[in-house]
Design goal:
Blueprint lengths: L13 H13 L4 H8 L7 H6 L3 H15 L4 E11 L13 E11 L10
Antiparallel strand pairs: 1-2
Protein name: Tyr recombinase domain-containing protein
Length: about 120
């Protein structure tokens, strides 16, 4: 691990077990199959409690924390707008059947954080 540049004072060899188990599940493997592979009993919650650390959950948590403590004035996101047009029998011209537009939307956020006031 040292040769790979990993700080072994923080990350021990057991960290690989947690990371690889999480990666296997996020790559589409069944949790039960991962438990069988590493020898964990299905009757215990060892994997859920100590090893499975989903990155999507961290991403959600990070977004929540950033929205609360963000000092960014504007957040830009892309939103999709769709419009469907009905085709009526007996008509000769239907210029638009469906339309999809994507536009950037700027959503204002607080420019100061609450902790700056302390």
């Amino acid at each position: 691990m040292k040769d790979a540049g990993i700080d072994t004072s923080i990350y021990k060899t057991h960290s690989i077990r947690s990371a690889s188990s999480t990666k296997a599940i996020e790559s589409g493997q069944l949790a039960a199959d991962v438990q069988d592979h590493v020898g964990w009993s299905k009757k215990t919650n060892t994997m859920d409690k100590y090893y499975y650390k989903p990155t999507a959950q961290k991403t959600k948590s990070t977004k929540i924390v950033n929205s609360i403590f963000s000092t960014t004035e504007n957040n830009t996101t892309s939103e999709v707008e769709t419009e469907a047009i009905e085709i009526v029998l007996g008509t000769t011209c239907n210029s638009k059947i469906a339309e999809v537009e994507t536009e950037d939307v700027v959503q204002p956020a607080p420019s100061t954080s609450w902790f700056r006031f302390w």
